[in-house]
Amino acid sequence: MSKKEQLILDIQNLLNTHEKVTITAINPHLLEFMDENTLKSIIGSLLDQKEVSKEDDIEWLEQFKKETI
Questions:
Q1: pTM exceeding the 0.70 threshold for the entire prediction
Q2: How far is CA 33 from CA 2, 16, 42, 59, 66, in A?
Q3: Long-range contacts of range 9-14, CB-CB < 8 Å, 24 or more positions apart?
């Protein structure tokens, strides 16, 4: 498997770890034109979104705990 193919697979796997998102299958031919740096940037953006989502969930949980106590 080439580096680009692995990056595309990593993107697909990251997309599928988001809650409330249906399973995503990416046709690798759609991302073939992108270079490795662009694919890595997409992975970075997905990881950032995941982190923000996690932080939002923690904030909501803390607020919920304050309101119920």
A1: no
A2: 14, 22, 14, 39, 50
A3: 10/43, 11/39, 11/42, 11/43, 11/46, 14/43, 14/46, 14/47, 14/50
Q: How far is CA 25 from CA 13, 22, 30, 48, 64, in A?
A: 9, 10, 11, 21, 35
In angstroms, what CA-CA distances link 24 with 4, 65, 68? 18, 34, 37
Assign 59 to helix, strand or coil.
Answer: helix
Helix, strand, coil percentages in the chain from 3-state DSSP, rounded to 5:
70, 0, 30
Domain boundaries, the chain: 3-68
The mean per-residue pLDDT over the stretch 36-42 comes to 93
Tokens of 55: 């932080």
Mean pLDDT of 12-20: 79
